[in-house]
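pipeline stage [seq->struct] | target=ABC-type transport auxiliary lipoprotein family protein | organism=Motilimonas cestriensis | residues=199
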Amino acid sequence: MKQLNLAVIAILSASLMGCSQTPTLPSQYYALGADDLVVAAIAPRSRGTLVLKPVELPDYLNNSGVVMQLDDNQVHIAEQHLWAGALNQQLDRLSNEAMALHLPQWSVVESAKFYPESGDQYWILSISVNRFQGRLEGVAVASGRWNLVAPNGKEVKDERFNYQLDVPSKDYPGIVEKLKENWLTLSHDIALQLNQAAQ
């Protein structure tokens, strides 16, 4: 009986060791790469100071995993395909860099680093994101709303945005690349409208 118990324990131990040695897939990390942007400057019609408020994300997006939308009601948060840092902070940096390149005659600053003095004239940009994710059929989606407040405190723009790009490879690296492209298109479109509104 004692030998039987020892045999069972040995078999269970071997099974558990086998489970613990099951190889796990390595994690992939994605950064939106704000440091090496190459975007075209917009023909200057105006100049000023633009204050960027932090990008707002729903909780399910401000997560470590890249989000994939499975159907109208279900999303999957990846466990191996992860953002290399908080997504909202990456979008903040990407917005700041892109707007500064699009509008080189403007001073672009994050609201947390802006300390206005009496009489300062500045514009305020807010972006709220609803979706920043891939779709199972191979589409990268960035949608939400942005608004622009003029130096007099009046809201001059309140616009919805919805950018969708096909991802031929239908994989996570391709989705992240197209999500970044969507965000840069948004930044370009906002810069155009700001340039016109500030004339």
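stage status: PASS
auto-comment: The chain has one domain: 27-197. The radius of gyration is 23 Å.
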